[in-house]
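Data availability excerpt. The first of two example chains:
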Amino acid sequence: MERFETFCGKLEAMLAGEDGIMRKIENGRELVAELTSRPEWFFDYLRKMVLDPAAIERQKPGIWPNEFTIHRAPDRSFVVLAYIWDAGLADTIHDHGSWGIIGTLVAKLGERKYERLDDGRREGYCKLRETASGVFGPGETTFVLPLDKGLHAMDNPTDGIAVSINVYGKTVRQGFIQFFDPAKNTVTRAYPPRTLKEVLAVKTLAAIDPDRAEGVFREALTSSRPPQLRREYEEALRRLRG
């Protein structure tokens, strides 16, 4: 893992000296390309995961089940994630809460980029257009920008395992990402498992007994809640009021 630790040190120093997002991405892509040109360091990481089951238990569940958190900077300036893609696996078109750099470590990965044509004001509606596509091998990188400027979908076009190493900067929106369906022109919020359970509870309370649910929602809003959950409760109250 020495190679990876060196990478994290270089990335941390670079980010501390750069202010502009595009300069961070430009310099960061060089570092990610170097890291992903050889996979030996990741073998050592996975070896520890396999031989120490508790290491997997310590992984915090995210939106994506194939996600592994490898490193989180103490100052929250960046996080390094690995995604292991089974044969033919493809994800949903989505946005991001920060800028990001994606490098292919094993096999090949495909990417399709999109732009949003609507203004985002209509709840649950979107209109997308594909703008670019590509396939990336080991040592090759792509990048995303925050929110609507970073819409894309990745896939594994091979018949074997593929791996990507993803670096994300400081978040500008925490707690959820958005999934886009251009066939239905819909956009929906996607939450990590813990948050999703509470969101589903909120929706079900309103479906069972709207009058009693209103009191529950108001009581919940008197206690500390992360912004994304407060939004769900507030929207649920607005729907109950019609």
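And the second chain:
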Amino acid sequence: MTLTTWLLFVLMETPLCLTPGPAVLFVFAHGLRYGGAKSVWASLGILSANAFYFALSATGLGVLVKTSHNAFLIVKYAGAAYLIYLGAKMIFGKSSALTATSDTQTPDVRGSQILGRGILLQMANPKALMFFTAFLPQFVSPNAPIGKQMLILGVTSTVLEFFILAGYGWFAGRLAELTKSVRIARRLNVTAGLMLVTCGTALALTSQK
């Protein structure tokens, strides 16, 4: 892989990561609900699923999944239902002051739980699979070792997206820390929940093409 190709990939990948989508909204919502520190677990969950998709793309199995209409529908609706479920829990759940400065004052949730949610969300996002099977191959040369090129692209994408998602989560956490008002905290909960419900609805309406 040439330096020019790699820089072009970075140039195109960065705005894609910055654009609000299911992953960004998921991390942002968890930043609002649980604080910036715990939103890192949401980012790690997203990236763990991406690593799996990188492996699929490198082996060519992703194309088979992408072209399967039934598999696409199962993944799409499972992901949409999960997002809407999480959003509803945030909207109708008990209010709590999201602005606490210590972890003991924030809603109790284990990092492993958030990690699992992130993995499930991204695994159920058909747009993510389309990205890895349609976008990445454009930067891979058939005249060079495929595995090595995919590894370079994978590490680059993971590092970029981690810092971007972590930035969104940190910003959301800072927003939550602006007040200790339960009323404001409730509004932030509802806002986070609506983000996920909207995202789930959009996912359900996603076309395979």
